[in-house]
Write a structure and sequence with these properties.
Number of domains: 1
Shape: globular
Strand order of the largest sheet: 3-2-1-4-5-8-7-6
Largest sheet: 8 strands, mixed
Distance between the termini: 40 Å
CATH class: Alpha Beta
Structural class: alpha/beta
CATH architecture: 3-Layer(aba) Sandwich
Strand content: 25-35%
Mean pLDDT: 92
CATH topology: Rossmann fold
Number of strands: 8
Low-confidence stretches: none
Length: about 190
């Protein structure tokens, strides 16, 4: 794993060291950020990397010019590696690390940065197998409504065989991409009258 573009391009990231992790490949990460560039993301934006693991997506966003990233992860050992990656990149002043259950708190706002413009959600696949309105993902999207700016984008990684709902409240799907056994679904925040 490495940062593939921006100020920290080529920096190798320390891996999670567990067999249960699912590191995102360079090809998928590049394709994901190509979509985001069409929406002027992540440069100068506030980002949350939920279920962040060792921080691959959030660090990529910082390398590409994001103002600030909140990293949230539950596993203490993984957080140790995440902190090492942030230190290696010299990006502690632009980041916050939290140990928490994302499904309960979403992405708490930072007092200096406000609502999020971009959120990455990369939970264990089992957590996205049920994508109905009344599911862990559906409830998380409800929480994120209050934590995101107008026109924000939420990116959710799932198994390729799983389709999430086309809409969760004010979040509407506008693109889905699949690579082998995994998929990424992009949602944009819209007003209720659209």
């Amino acid at each position: 794993m490495r940062i593939i573009a921006g100020a920290k391009r080529g920096m190798k990231l320390l891996g999670p060291g567990t067999k249960s992790s699912r590191p995102i490949t360079d090809m998928v990460k590049e394709s994901l950020f190509d979509v985001l560039y069409n929406y002027d993301l992540p440069k100068d934006k506030v980002v949350a990397d939920l279920f962040c693991g060792v921080g691959s997506l959030g660090l990529e966003a910082l390398s590409r010019g994001a103002d600030f990233v909140t990293f949230i992860e539950r596993n203490s050992k993984t957080i140790e590696t995440l902190r090492k990656n942030i230190a290696k990149a010299g990006l502690f002043e632009k980041s916050k690390v939290m140990k928490a259950n994302v499904f309960k708190i979403g992405a708490p706002l930072h007092p200096d940065y406000g609502r999020y413009d971009l959120i990455f959600i990369d939970p264990p696949y089992a957590e996205t197998d049920k994508g109905q309105r009344e599911s862990a993902i559906g409830n998380l999207m409800d929480i994120l409504l209050q934590q995101t700016s107008p026109e924000s984008i939420v990116v959710i990684r799932t198994r390729g065989s799983r389709n999430l709902l086309p809409r969760y409240g004010e979040f509407e799907e506008f693109q889905r991409r699949q690579w082998g056994t995994m998929a990424v679904t992009f949602y944009r925040k819209i007003s209720n009258d659209e």
